[in-house]
Amino acid sequence: DTEVTQTPKHLVMGMTNKKSLKCEQHMGHRAMYWYKQKAKKPPELMFVYSYEKLSINESVPSRFSPECPNSSLLNLHLHALQPEDSALYLCASSPEGRRDPSNYGYTFGSGTRLTVV
Amino acid sequence: AQTVTQSQPEMSVQEAETVTLSCTYDTSENNYYLFWYKQPPSRQMILVIRQEAYKQQNATENRFSVNFQKAAKSFSLKISDSQLGDTAMYFCAFMKRNRYGGSQGNLIFGKGTKLSVKP
């Protein structure tokens, strides 16, 4: 299995809703990431988990709350979002620790298209 | 701090022809990876090719090859025999490498080049 699976693919939510985005990988990768991507822009890093511990939080508003229940799963909990939070949310994973550099790289999911109304 | 610059916002090429996408970067690091990612309208970010900075040999993957000039901090992507399915946004990306071969820090993206392959 060489995939990162994200659900749902599309999500429309109101500003008072609570929802969660899910990400799953079974490649044995020990680093997982959430990125936010606006149209025609590169992805922007939000959070990094390394060995299930939050290692980077790029000053993301508290209305976004990440969770890493185990080494295969990554969630992003959403609450009281604003219309400007509408974007494509990408999950990615990568191997960590000792490994063959020729195989190194991030694997991305296909994203969740989020619309906040 | 590291920066990645893609100076061509949009490019087009005729099917079966060759096209080169430019990327320059700035870093004081000596050990790092460079990547080209492809993002088609389906929006999945797909790894096209990777280059390890300590390797002088340019990476190739089928129709995709790079011209890596470490001293000039240049990392261009050449697509040969362009196909309609190559139509996508292409991002150049940089990452510091730790001593174990893994990452050290964030994957830093350029702004992207939108490539259109015309029939």
Outline of chain B, from the CA principal axes? Answer: globular
Oligomer state equals: heterodimer
Nearest-angstrom radius of gyration of chain A?
Answer: 14 Å
Write down the Rg of chain B.
Answer: 14 Å
Q: Would you report the number of β strands of chain A?
A: 11
Q: Write down how many β-strands of chain B occur, each being a DSSP E stretch of 2 or more residues.
A: 12
Structural class of chain A: mainly beta
Task: Explain what the structure shows.
The complex is a heterodimer of chains A (117) and B (119). Chain A has 117 residues and is mainly beta. In chain A, 0% of the residues lie in helices and 55% in strands. Chain A contains no helices and eleven strands. Chain A has strands at 4-7, 10-13, 18-25, 31-37, 44-50, 53-57, 64-70, 73-79, 87-94, 107-108, 112-116. In chain A, strands 2, 4, 5, 6, 9, 10 and 11 form a seven-stranded mixed sheet that branches. In chain A, 32% of the residues are buried. By secondary structure, chain B is an all-beta fold. Chain B has strands spanning 3-5, 10-14, 19-21, 24-26, 32-39, 46-52, 60-61, 64-69, 74-79, 88-96, 108-109, 113-118. In chain B, the strands form three sheets. In chain B, strands 2, 5, 6, 10, 11 and 12 form a six-stranded mixed sheet that branches. Chain B is globular. The mean pLDDT of chain B is 92. The interface between A and B is medium-sized, with 30 and 25 residues.
